[in-house]
Design a protein that fits this description.
- There is one protein chain.
- The protein is α/β, with parallel strands linked by helices and 320 residues long.
- Among the domains are: 2-107, Glutaredoxin, CATH 3.40.30; 113-180, Serine Threonine Protein Phosphatase 5, Tetratricopeptide repeat, CATH 1.25.40.
- It contains 15 helices and 5 strands.
- Strand 2, helix 2 and strand 3 (53-58) form a beta-alpha-beta unit.
- Helix 9 packs across helix 11 (221-233) and helix 13 runs antiparallel to helix 15.
């Protein structure tokens, strides 16, 4: 348990909540209900075994922070608990709630044991991929997905790792359970297009033959799309998008917009969200150093990729 002050507010509360939920307990020594709630929160922190972090703020010792949070939520009494997630306050409650009610509140935001295990496996896989150990990373991702088959993030990372390793048949098995989702996850849909390109590549015509067909007829969209899929499968993303863009500019609706869908899929595959450590560092760098304390910090934005941004603009111009 950590006491929050102006000095450690960013590090121990805002930045810490980028990695895990953090429950801030605002209390005071003279407050009887605060003393009743405190032991309950400490007990639950132990029982939840690292699935959330408990921090405490003495309203008398740090009145500025307490007042800003009270004004933000329209609360005038303590104990007042605020749950932080992703660098921002997301929910709270007032008063010395019974243990069962506090559990109910926590369970809305705190991952289950299975979800926590899956998150740890995903983190391990990310580290292994960074080290170049793709086989071990795939094993971790497979375990995370087995723990929670509904975890779309784990499935997407698993598909990416399998396709990057050329394990197309395994990727097909991993993708089939979500292939016909009524509302598909955008990342999984992108992985599905990548998978389709990988499956089509072995039977595609040679690149020279496709280039010759396109030179003879610039509206030979079948040849142009076949070339784009071949390039997509080889991770030649910008060349693939150039071919797809030619189709979109000439016929946006060709084959139910498949060229646009593959173009968007490549942009999704190329986009890499910032990891927790990078996000925390960016949040710390953006934090105010002097003057009024900013309670509601901004979540660190994903660093821009100039190539991705440029190709997004090209697609927007072609569509509109």
């Amino acid at each position: 348990m950590q006491d929050i002050t102006r000095k450690n507010f960013e590090a121990e509360l805002v930045n810490a909540s980028l990695a895990q939920p953090v429950l801030l307990d605002i209390w005071a020594e003279w407050c009887g209900p605060c003393k009743a709630l405190g032991p309950v929160l400490e007990k639950l922190e132990t029982e939840y075994a690292g699935r959330f972090k408990l921090v405490k703020l003495d309203a008398d010792a740090e009145p500025e922070i307490a007042q800003q949070l009270s004004q933000m939520f329209g609360v005038r009494s303590i104990p007042f608990c605020v749950l932080w997630l992703g660098g921002q306050p997301v929910d709270g409650f007032v008063g010395a709630l019974p243990e069962a009610e506090v559990r109910k509140f926590l369970d809305k935001h705190v991952p289950s044991e299975e979800e926590q295990t899956a998150q740890e496996q995903l983190q391990e896989a990310e580290e292994l991929l960074a080290e170049g150990d793709s086989d071990a990373a795939i094993d971790r991702l497979q375990a995370a997905l087995a723990t929670n088959p509904a975890n779309d993030a784990a499935r997407y990372d698993y598909l990416r790792a399998l396709l990057a390793a050329g394990r197309v048949a395994d990727a097909r098995k991993a993708f089939d359970p979500v292939a016909n989702a009524v509302v598909p996850d955008q990342r999984l849909a992108a992985a599905g297009h990548w998978l389709a390109a990988m499956e089509a590549a072995p039977s595609a015509r040679p690149e020279e033959a496709l280039a010759a067909a396109i030179a003879a007829d610039k509206r030979d969209f079948d040849a142009r799309f076949e070339l784009a899929q071949t390039l997509f499968a080889r991770n030649e993303y910008t060349r693939a998008m150039d071919e797809l863009l030619e189709i979109v500019m000439r016929d946006k609706a060709w084959k139910d917009g498949v060229a646009r869908k593959n173009y968007v899929a490549i942009l999704e595959i190329m986009s890499k969200p910032a990891g927790a450590a990078a996000a925390a560092a960016a949040a710390a760098a953006a934090a105010p150093k002097q003057g009024t304390l900013e309670v509601a910090s901004k979540i660190a934005a994903t660093p821009a990729d100039p190539v991705v941004d440029a190709y997004r603009r090209k697609l927007s111009m072609a569509l509109f």
